[in-house]
Design brief:
It is a single chain. By secondary structure, the chain is mainly beta. The chain has no helices and ten strands. The strands form five sheets. It has a two-stranded antiparallel ribbon with strand order 1-10. Strands 2-3 form a two-stranded antiparallel ribbon.
């Protein structure tokens, strides 16, 4: 059981771009979740992030609960994976979440 991630309150672990082309490496960044495909379910007063939600840097929430959904979409929890984004920013995971609500 992992705590559910929330929009505008929680972030991903963070990553840096370690590519070799000109202008690299690019600095480490850790951004909050800024979107979610559902608009009704809240956790601790903030919208619950679901699979398909995204962070400020463009990582998409791709991992989620196999048992708990919001609006029919799996909720994204602490340690669930994100997609990474262009320029060699590798996939990572949710770092923070609302500790009082857990989903299997």
């Amino acid at each position: 059981m992992f705590p559910i991630t929330r929009i505008l309150a929680d972030s991903h672990i963070g990553h840096a771009c370690n590519g070799t082309p000109k202008g690299h490496p690019k600095p480490f960044h850790k951004t909050p979740y800024v979107s979610t495909p559902q608009t009704r379910v809240t956790v601790g007063g903030k919208l619950a992030v679901c699979v398909g939600g995204a962070t400020g840097c463009g990582d998409v929430a791709v991992g989620g609960s196999a048992f708990v959904t919001a609006g029919g979409i799996p909720v994204h929890r602490a340690t669930d994976t994100t997609s990474g984004h262009p320029c060699h920013f590798v996939p990572n995971a949710s770092a923070a979440s609302f500790v009082f609500v857990r989903a299997g």
